[in-house]
Amino acid sequence: MNELSKLKKLYGSIALVSIILGIILIVQFRIARSIQYNESIQRTKELTVQVDQMKKERDVLHAQLTRMRGQLESMLTLDSPAPPGKEDIEPTMIFAGVTELTGSGVEVTLQDSSAKQKPGENPNYYLVHDEDILKVVNELKAAGCEAIAVNDQRLIASTGISCSGPSISINKKVLVPPFVITAIGSPETLEGALKMRGGVVEFLQFCGIQVSIKKLENITIPAYKGSIKMNYIAKTDAGLLPVPEDGENASM
After folding, report:
1. Which CATH number do you get for residue 214?
2. DSSP notation for 73-128
């Protein structure tokens, strides 16, 4: 009878401990879900603020573009009341990328992965590709950078970035790593856009690419040195007209 009593007490203790462990697990599960939910809400709020900021910056840039287009049209119109002054031409030249610029901003360096290649693995997985540079460039533009260059090659509206094996071609110039991307703009804003949680830097580092970012007070972006060709526009006495299909490409 004594043994039976001891067994009952033992089973009772085991049942009590099991109940307590179950309660603890349930509480931990609910707390974890609550934390994840709160993080999700916080992340959504952060993204909403960033989207609103980008929309405001886009509207400002759109207004600048509209004004510059108007200035350019007045420059090319023969009956313009007066030749444009330096203060009128300068913003257009900056927008076109044909003038050297200096200001504060960030310097982003991308280098190939330092990880040891595994046997039989594709070596391209360890290299910086054109799409990696495009991700950084697009993020900097979205964050409001005013000028940008890669290895001293100024990027303009018509600039193409293409991959050719271990090298990358920009403005028809073959570039090799490390790829140094310089951008003029608010250093804090540009760095924050790149380092945001789940952003481009986190993605590239996950892929093994080495990324370093420096905030600098003095960055010089060189002028675009290539030729600017207009394939479908011709300048005439009447203004700008489309080039016929059998016509030659016009260049500025």
Report:
1. 3.30.70.1880
2. HHHT-TT-SS---HHHHHHHHHHHT-S-EEEEEEEEEEE---SPPPTT--GGGGS-
